[in-house]
Amino acid sequence: MNVTAPRTPLPAVPIWRNALLVRIIVQAALLASVIGVLLYLLSNLTTNLKNTGLPTGYGYLDQPYGSDIPFSSFRPTQSIWDALKVGYGNTVRVASVGILVSLVLGVIIGVARLSTNFLVRTAATLYVETIRNIPVYLLVFASFFVIIQQSLPPITEAFEWFGTTVFSNRGIYVPWLDGYANSGTFMIVLGLGLVVAAVVAAWRTKRFDTTGQPHHRLLWGLGVIVVIGLIGYIALSAPVGVTTPERDGRVVVGGIAVNPSYAALLIALSLYTASHIAEIVRGGIQAVHHGQTEASFALNLTAFQRIRLVVLPQAFRIMIPPLANQFLNITKNSSLAVAIGYYEITRVTQTAANNAAPAPQAYSILMLLYLSFSLSISLVANIINRQLRLESR
Amino acid sequence: MTEMITGIGDMPIVEAPPKPYGRFRDNPRGWLKANLFGSKINGIFTIVLGAGLLYAMARLLKYVFISGRWEVVRSGLTSMMIGLNYPRDTASLTKPWIAVGLLAAVGGLATGVALRRRGSTWYEAARPWLPVVMVGALLASLTETATPKLLAAVVVVILAIATVIGTRIPPERTRRIWIVYWLGVVVAAFALTGRELGAPDNWGGLLLALYVASFGIVISFPLGLLLALGRRSKLPVVHWLSVLYIELIRGVPLITLLFAGDLALRFFLPVGTEPPGRIMRSIIMIVLFSAAYLAEIVRGGLQAVPKGQLEACQSLALGQFTTLRRVVLPQALRSVLPGLVGQFISLFKDTTLLGIIGLRELIGVAETITSYDEFRNQGYLPELLTFVGLLFWVCCYSMSKASRRLETRMGVGVR
């Protein structure tokens, strides 16, 4: 668009063909109309809220929530804001555990899809192709209403597995740790152990860098923690123990109760996301150039070394963005809990909106909370991605 | 993109790997050794997994043929297809059949035209239809009266006739045939809904799911295209507005949007306006949702157009719009088609979420049927959910297979 110094003066560019001016005007008009529409919607909102007698601000968050939250110490007199905090914790709990479980499952199944064993390969393919093509809500719904509610026995006839776990449709009770007198001190000892282990691992790495001898830093680190933990355990005369659940009629004592809705949601989300992660893992491994594998054969690396040191690091680099996407998806899909009574943020918001909270504000907060999850996951993914990016010449 | 070096001159460096199964065609023992009992660990895997799979298969067969009480599916089939409250008079029941017939005609015609244009075999042309016909046969076998069976047969005949007609059209006259396809689809939609194109609130089941997903993808496509172009725009305001919209929508789950549409949308309308029906509200939210995802798919397609194409346009002094319309979009949209199918599949699966906001889609219908007097508290949910799952699975699996074939045929990602 820029014309370099013409010899004879050209006729002046008319205003409507001045590129810069047109751009500015078009963008200003667009921005103004978007803001205008938003303001219009906002004025509609305030009028409508006033007409229906609902609060227009966010003051409702301090009002009492009015319902119980199962499997928590929440009381109905506490505020909606407190309820959202409990819900946030529950979302984090299901999303983080779900991410771990689905990652482990997904990697196993993804590698199995490339197995040389025909049966292993077929079973993995069957799994992936079946689960991927079923709605995740169907899985959540079925795992709660069929597996938990219909297949598990009522509490009076609960199934007790070798006296360690009690299965019933009111809750699944599993063994848990129980702290005694010195448990606080023991925690400090374990923390110290972790620090020492990190130092030892760093020393092993440094030794590896200078001498080239195998570092085995994971083994060394784990060994240090185990030794320190054992010494602490004996010195503090058994500060922690294990309690197992014991059922007596309708009451279960000891252990820890797992919310059946949580179990159902976790099962369904992990199975579903694992099928997607398996495809990502398979794609990532297949994308590693075959020459790399051949080169590691030529260097006489063992199968484990080949996969651990050559294939996986390169595959991982390709897998990060889609994996982050799946982690995001599992977080977002945890909102399906709203249908099976697990009180994460969506369910809490829905209950609040049903009680008295104004729907527009309630859902705007819900969306902001999910956005915070999304942003933090993509932030972490971006950092990892930047660290592992191939330095291109 | 990495380029595979396959040879210098006549000397091949990398030979094509031998076909995995061809090697063992006449050597079952070799196949067994390579695929099942290559090593000790492999053998253990084979035996353990084989036993597990056999057991699972036995359980499944027993469930399907002996223990499953499929009469509940049989009696709820109509509700599963069109919804619990869809009017049951003959005139209303005819509408879906007319739509199915029209779609079969369009599909047959398209298959026939493609068959002739590409010179593919009849087997290749019939393959994508196989799962559809199989599901149709399964559904027809589950009906309680003879009329639906007859009508299903008529639909198959229409499909066949349309295919034959399609093969009779000379290829040079099929350039604008897509207008006929669109006309057929639009007429089918109008046949279902009558004059107002919205879905009435008494719809449910598969009809609701398919209608919402198709409507959603068709309406959200132009929106997604605009957003994708906006995101690639050099104008900062346009760029950042698009980015803001796309990332906001992609950051929240669909169910929160559906809830917002169901409960909060009416507050944003002018005072005194009656909000649209429940299904239409959901469709609006689904369109807004899907547009953000489509924008990212289309953006991928736009990025795949080589820069040289744009430079060529510049050197030909083509205007921006002409460049877009004649050069960029034809190439970009070609590579976007599989992604579009994928988005349709995931929208179709996501329609189950409508059940959470109280619409009776397939899962909602299943849930309601188990609350009927004759089926209450007898544990009929597994059978119904199995049926729903099977329906979804067949639809999604065949669509994703078709999209993968499309991908290979169009050479997406291959230069």
Q: Could you give a short account of the major beta sheet of chain B?
A: 2 strands, antiparallel
Q: Can you tell me the residue ranges of chain B where pLDDT is under 50 for at least 5 consecutive residues? A: 1-16
Name the poorly predicted regions of chain A.
none
What's the shape of chain A? globular
Give helix % range of chain B.
over 70%
As a whole number of angstroms, the C-alpha radius of gyration of chain B is 25 Å
Q: Report the end-to-end length of chain A measured between terminal Cα atoms.
A: 33 Å
- What's the average pLDDT of chain B? 85
Q: In total, how many beta strands of chain A?
A: 8
Q: Largest interface, by Cβ-Cβ below 8 angstroms: which chains and how many residues each?
A: A-B, 56 and 53 residues
Q: What oligomeric state best describes the polypeptide chains here?
A: heterodimer
User: Main beta sheet of chain A: strand number and arrangement?
Assistant: 4 strands, antiparallel
Q: Give the overall silhouette of chain B.
A: globular
Strand-and-helix sequence of chain A, N→C?
HHHHEEEEHHEEEEHHHHH
* Gyration radius over CA of chain A: 29 Å
Could you tell me the mean pLDDT of chain A? 88
Strand content of chain A: 5-15%
Summarize the structure.
The complex is a heterodimer of chains A (393) and B (415). Chain A is α+β, with helices and mostly antiparallel strands and 393 residues long. Chain A has 11 helices and 8 strands.
Structure characterization notes:
The complex is a heterodimer of chains A (393) and B (415). With 393 residues, chain A is of the alpha+beta class. Helix content of chain A is 65%, strand content 7%. In chain A, the strands form three sheets. Chain A has a four-stranded antiparallel β-sheet. In chain A, strands 4-5 form a two-stranded antiparallel ribbon. A two-stranded antiparallel sheet of chain A has the order 6-7. In chain A, helix 2 (80-112) packs antiparallel against helix 10 (345-355) and helix 3 (118-132) packs across helix 7 (260-287). Chain A starts with 18 loop residues before the first helix and ends in a 5-residue tail after the last helix. The relative contact order of chain A is 0.13. By secondary structure, chain B is mostly helical. Helices cover 71% and strands 1% of the residues of chain B. Chain B contains 16 helices and two strands. A two-stranded antiparallel sheet of chain B has the order 1-2. In chain B, a hairpin with a 2-residue loop joins strand 1 and strand 2. The termini of chain B are close together. Mean pLDDT of chain B is 85; it is low at 1-16. The interface between A and B is large, with 56 and 53 residues.
